[in-house]
Amino acid sequence: MRPAPDQLRAEAEGASAGLPALMLSAERLAAALVAGAHGQRRAGLGEDFWQYRPATAGDTARSIDWRRSARTDAQYVRDREAQVAQSAVIWVSAAAGMEYSGGADRPAKRDRADLLALSLAMALLAAGERVALAGQPPRPGRVQAERMAQALVARAPLPGDEDAPPAEALRPGQRIVLFDDFLGDPQPVLDYLARAAGLGVQGVLMQVLDPDEEGFPWRGAVLFRSGSGALRHDTRDAAGLRMAYLARLAERREALSRAGRSAGWHFGTHDTTAPPSQALLWLWSVLEG
Amino acid sequence: MLLIGPIGFLTPWLLAALAALPALWLILRAMPPSPRLVRFPGTRLLLGLRDPHPVARHTPWWLLLLRVLAVAALILGFAGPVWKPAPDQGGQGPLLIVMDAGWAAAPDWPQRQARALRALERAAAAGQPAALLVADGREDGALAFQPAPDLAAQLRALRPASWETRYPPDPAAALAGAPAGLSALWLSDGLDHPGRAEWLAALSARAALTVVPPEGPRQSLELAAGDQPALRLRSTGAAASDVLAIGRDPQGMPRELARLKPGEGAQDRGVTSWPVPIDLPSELRNRITRFEVEGQASAGAVLLADDSLRRRKVALVGDDRAGEGQRLLSPLHYLRRALAPSTDLIEGGMGDVLQAAPDVIVLADQIGLADTPGLREWVEQGGLLIRFAGPRMAASERLAEEPLLPVRLRAGGRDIGGALAWGEPRGVAEFAADGPFAGLAVPADVAVRAQLLAEPAPDLGDRVIARLSDGTPLVTRAALGQGQLVLFHTTANAEWSNLAISGLFVEMLDRLVRSARVSAETPEADPAEQPFWLPELVLDGFGRAAEPGDPVPVAAADFARGPAPAAPAGLYRGGERMVALNAGGPMAPADWPGIRIERAAEAPGLDLRGWLVALAALLLALDALGSAWLARGRRGAMA
């Protein structure tokens, strides 16, 4: 049962209400092509007033501020503060495994990831950033939150176990946030990271896991099936597999973390039983820094 | 029997199977349970992993316990456990078993057999000889004492008879070869039968006698005499069961047609009897083949329906325009009075009564009506048309062409004994012994003053079934198709003769009506005159009907005495008549003064087998539920 867009939005507003306005760090301002809400403390393209300066050769008659110029004999031009386009792109995996929930008392991983994604998006939008889901043009404004909520809810889960972020939608100047369990084939993610590093795009990998996947509580004879049923593993003694599984999980995390570090990315994990605000705060601090 | 505390086991060797339970525990323990099916997104991380300890996880101990308990309950159940079994009474001497084997013993026959077998087993264990007296009237002579085990097969094959329990006539001769120290077990059917007192005296003098009375009340069913058909239900108990009327439905399938409620009961010397009126439409009643007391599997509680039960539907057609004061002049009045008690009467125009499909149509002094379309076809399909002569017929000029008469009539009547006639009124001659009226007594005062005469014909003699004292025909009969035409050559009122106001008239009409729908080829005879009866359907002691494999003719004299070894209860055919020989009848409860009576409560103890088997089934059901609960992951993954 997927929540309705309104419901998801209301929850996300609740989750992000405590956050102060989130400002993306503006390391890559110079490369920005579109003006964003980040004042650069110098004159440039933007909305806000910056200074009046005497008109020089090359200024068009249209750019002269006639009201200011009327007070003196010189002509003045009204400069605006330079602003830069900084946009955040959020991607949530739709793999079949994301629908998993280990118990009735905790949400499916997908639901938690959606909630985190939208909360983050709303915090960013409230700070005036441009936000979009991967593959869509980033836009500012509250309406964008509405659109994203609908798009998140409307997305059907994929039949297969694998879902990878769209590498071709990477643009310079974006900050990327990926929500996934990263339990599938790691290669597409590593390739994506490599390409992002090549484009100078930074971001965050957020691994959302169910406590079952972190703790491996099974015992006895169990036939494991992946989310889509494509992969199976039959065991007579599941408890005996626990250590090996945990070791592999740690190894996977280590590999992702290492690849992320070398590309300038951050890697974080989130447990569906933990409060979402915890993950949001971490995401915020990472994006801000 | 093996006794462990208060519980006895009938087949104790089966308990040896309990020794196999530990082995079963180990086998069940080693069986791997079916794996749980778990949907797990991290399965990719598991691929290629090997089980560190590849041993089966054990079945949960509670599931194992359930299964072992179920098997143990089954073993204990089949070992025949009995709670507080009654100690076997009686002496340890040679055993004589007296089995009442009439229909009254049928309802609880298996229990009787089991009780007798138990006694036999005990005698066999003690190494004593035993003898079996089956009181069904087929045994005679001295009782043969044999080793007890040889009798068991005979006892098991024994079935109750469909007649009353009968004891051999001479107890002294039968017991002549009995050894000393005899102990006797009498399995009574609870009723008194001829010779029981003598046997009781003889046995109590020679042996330690124990009597086992039946458990429930005995019930019997018989046809009650009277104009209205009714049954009589008797019971040694106080409660009356319903009586089921069973017959073929319009599709020809045997089924319960009606359920009859007994009326007010009356008690007489330990037997309560209830009248059970058969208050049913005649169409339904004519389809009934048997009545049986609900829940009593006994030949005595079954009544087979025969011709006597069928109530004919008789249609009267005639001129009934006589006014109030002239009622005694109307022929229909006499017919109505004669037929109403024993038949269902319908009256009306010819077209109307044919619609009602009667068995018999009576035409009183009608001419021309015989041309009614459909009447001839009705007769040819088996209808019985009875016509009466009268003044209107006598006056008809076209009497010779009148159809549907058994004989051709001469125009104009014949007056005898009138003012202008020579002769005296004629009486009725004795009926021929092979005719339908055979055996009816002719009152001397019956006289006929006028009649219609038949044209002489070669076959006239064959068609006359009643004559006047001068040999002229009074009643003639002829077959037409499957039906019959009957003509009374005189009137149905007192105008031409006083036959109509005599009892003979009623009896003659009754005989004729009863012969309706019976093939008219041979004349029917009274049961007493029928020399032999052939069984068509024979009842066994439980009241189940079967066709006799080898129908043995029963002499009429034996037949009249009721069911007997030579004439089992059933349905018998003689000529065209079907007569049922029913077992049920009057009953008298037996009393046993001063004799040791085995009460049912103390007899067998409480049989625990059913409870244990039910317990095992319950445990297995719980096991199935538990297994399903363990495998519930499978369903979750399928969804």
UniProtKB/TrEMBL annotation, chain A:
Domain of life, per the record?
Answer: Bacteria
Cite the DUF58 domain residue spans from the record: 51-254
Which InterPro entries is this protein grouped with? DUF58 (IPR002881)
Q: Which Pfam families match?
A: DUF58
PANTHER family annotated for this entry? BLL2464 PROTEIN
What name does UniProt use for this protein? MoxR-like ATPase
Organism this protein belongs to:
Paracoccus thiocyanatus
Q: What is the lineage of its organism?
A: Bacteria, Pseudomonadati, Pseudomonadota, Alphaproteobacteria, Rhodobacterales
UniProtKB/TrEMBL annotation, chain B:
Transmembrane stretches, start-end: 6-28, 61-83, 611-631
Which superkingdom does the taxonomy of this entry point to? Bacteria
- Show the Gene3D superfamilies listed in the entry: 3.40.50.880
Annotated InterPro entries: Aerotolerance_reg_N (IPR024163), Class_I_gatase-like (IPR029062), Double_TM_dom (IPR011933)
Residue intervals of the Aerotolerance regulator N-terminal domain: 7-81
Keyword annotations for this protein, in alphabetical order, are: Membrane, Transmembrane, Transmembrane helix
Instruction: List the Pfam families.
Output: BatA
The record's section on PANTHER family has:
BLL2463 PROTEIN
Supply the name of the protein.
Answer: N-terminal double-transmembrane domain-containing protein
Q: Which species is this UniProt entry from?
A: Paracoccus thiocyanatus
